């Protein structure tokens, strides 16, 4: 814009300086919502019934039972994704703070280090570890930092920086289960491993684009979240909990050997 001013002498309004940035954000937002797929939508099919990936008392957040796409975008196969937070008892999870404390340690949250289970007999097609578990973003300044600074940087760095440590399972019939924000060093499986329903595969953490320790779970139609579309799910015996709804997941029957 400075070049236009120098060449023409036109005293353009100051807000024009920000126009390229606004347009860039608009392009990113549209692309992100389409998800890089032909129609930008999740797969139109009946929900796939799978086991629950956690045990104990948990609550749902960003649930597809309330809206789709559940996280506001179709990108990365997230159309029917859900977040779950451990709530062993009312008040056990630290509440959101306006200013203090600015951040909390992952261990302050009951979800941290909780076992994460295979939802079906499957093959591990992706097992990514190595990212640290960062402090929570559960204050107003922390949430603004996550939304305005950290989140966009992670988005530009690739899907692995958004998901953090993660596992993708091939459930068969063109369905894949993704588990995100896992604890650093907790993965017990490698790519190519066969797992049984109910088998522990990792532990819940706070890696990637996460405000606090929780499990992000989704089904997809491809193993690569960058190319996948979301697939609807239902958890056996529970269904799909709504936002804020608590549910109790019984311990699984011992995995077959």
From TrEMBL:
Which CDD domains would you find in this protein's record?
M23_peptidase
Q: Which residues form the M23ase beta-sheet core domain?
A: 157-221
* Cited InterPro entries: Cell_wall_metabolism_enzyme, Dup_hybrid_motif, M23ase_b-sheet_dom
For this protein, the record's PANTHER family field holds: MUREIN HYDROLASE ACTIVATOR ENVC, PEPTIDASE-RELATED
Report the protein name in the record.
M23 family metallopeptidase
Q: Which organism is it from?
A: Streptomyces indiaensis
């Amino acid at each position: 814009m400075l070049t236009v001013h120098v060449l023409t002498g036109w005293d353009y309004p100051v807000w024009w300086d920000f126009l390229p940035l606004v347009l860039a954000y608009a392009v990113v937002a549209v692309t992100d919502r389409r998800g890089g797929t032909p129609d930008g939508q999740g797969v139109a099919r009946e929900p796939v019934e799978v086991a629950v990936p956690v045990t104990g008392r948990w609550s749902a957040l960003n649930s597809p039972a309330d809206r789709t796409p559940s996280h506001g975008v179709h990108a990365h196969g997230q159309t029917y994704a859900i977040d779950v937070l451990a709530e062993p008892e009312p008040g056990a999870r630290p509440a959101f703070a306006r200013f203090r404390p600015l951040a909390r340690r992952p261990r302050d949250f009951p979800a941290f280090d909780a076992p994460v289970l295979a939802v079906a007999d499957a093959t591990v097609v992706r097992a990514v570890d190595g990212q640290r578990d960062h402090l929570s973003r559960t204050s107003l300044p922390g949430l603004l930092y996550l939304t305005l600074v950290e989140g966009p940087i992670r988005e530009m760095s690739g899907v692995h920086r958004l998901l953090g440590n993660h596992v993708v399972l091939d459930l068969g019939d063109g369905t894949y289960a993704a588990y995100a924000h896992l604890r650093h060093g907790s993965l017990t499986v490698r790519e190519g491993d066969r797992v049984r329903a109910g088998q522990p595969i990792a532990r819940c953490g706070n890696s990637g684009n996460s405000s606090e320790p929780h499990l992000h779970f989704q089904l997809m139609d491809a193993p690569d979240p960058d190319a996948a579309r979301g697939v609807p799910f239902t958890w056996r015996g529970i269904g799909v909990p709504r936002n804020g709804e608590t549910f109790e997941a019984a311990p699984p029957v011992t995995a077959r050997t």
